[in-house]
Write a structure and sequence with these properties.
297 residues, 11 helices, 41% helix, globular
């Protein structure tokens, strides 16, 4: 999971609700900085498994400083968006339809080209939204630390544990069990109290049915790279140097199959958005501002 360096909202950022044709979603909405050179457009950021809009907090300031409006969203069932306790509500097609509705709502507000980014599981959901057909509001698509199909075998083992045990546990018990797994030496850096409190609060706020349904998706996602390659949108594949969910060479090969721009963030792993936000923001700005937003190469 991504670990933001702070929960403080940057200047010109509001926590609000985004109303769409498919309901209301909690978002962090960062306006372009007043001293930015020019308004560049809007970016919708879609988080991954066990994540939330806060995963992108460290990107908001540098992206808004470059002139972008940036909207990070909690998907249905994630953290502050809420959702039903029914796994069917979290089928990938439903989550993808939500992203399309979020995009339509933002496009209706104007503000220049609309870019969409999906992190990890969010990349699969964004891909499904792009492939669903119908009018597309997107000017480009970015897949961040998100692979071509199901997650790596080692990650499948951990994900299966959640699928096996979450239906028989309350969220608090599941949280303690999960943190016990992470207590192995070298598994995670020491977590400050404020971050531990937030991660705990986010976990218990997340709808269990959403976690179970999306865990199954991570373990069964088919390879749809050829389908996405056929969509005439500029594409970026961005990741860290190491990735526990999809090996980096697999991401390299996916980018080549997509005809996508490929960026590897030095010193980052599965969450370059939180681990190297300045470098990640610079790569996104370069892509969205024109270098990659007019060509898929």
């Amino acid at each position: 999971m991504s670990r933001p360096t702070s929960l403080d909202l940057p200047e010109h950022t509001a926590a609000r609700r985004l109303d769409t044709s498919r309901g209301s979603f909690a978002v962090l909405d960062a306006a372009p900085a007043p001293d930015a050179p020019a308004r560049q457009g809007t970016a919708l950021l879609v988080p991954g498994f066990t994540g939330s809009k806060e995963d992108f907090l460290d990107l908001l300031a540098p992206l808004s400083a470059a002139g972008f409006r940036v909207v990070a969203v909690d998907g249905r069932g994630q953290h502050e968006s809420g959702g039903p306790r029914d796994e069917a509500a979290y089928a990938q097609r439903e989550l993808a339809a939500d992203v399309s509705a979020q995009g339509a709502a933002l496009a209706a507000e104007g503000g220049g080209p609309l870019h969409v980014l999906g992190h990890s599981l969010g990349g699969h959901i964004v891909r499904a939204a792009v492939l669903a057909g119908g009018p597309q509001p997107w000017a480009s698509v970015t897949l961040m630390s998100s692979g071509p199909a199901e997650v790596d075998e080692a990650q499948q083992i951990r994900t299966q544990l959640l699928i096996d045990h979450l239906p028989t546990m309350d969220m608090e018990t599941a949280w303690r069990a999960m943190r016990a797994l992470d207590a192995d030496p070298g598994a995670d850096p020491v977590t400050p109290d404020w971050l531990e409190d937030f991660l705990h609060r986010r976990w218990v706020n997340t709808v269990p049915a959403q976690l179970i349904a999306t865990a199954r998706q991570l373990m069964t996602e088919p390879d749809r790279v050829a389908e996405l390659a056929a969509v005439p949108l500029p594409k970026l594949v961005l990741s860290g140097e190491v990735d526990y969910a999809w090996p980096v060479p697999l991401l390299d090969a996916m980018a080549e199959r997509l005809g996508a721009r490929r960026v590897v963030i030095k010193g980052a792993e599965h969450s370059p958005n939180a681990e190297r936000p300045a470098e990640t923001a610079a790569a996104l700005v370069a892509f969205w501002a024109g270098e990659g937003a007019t060509s898929s190469k």
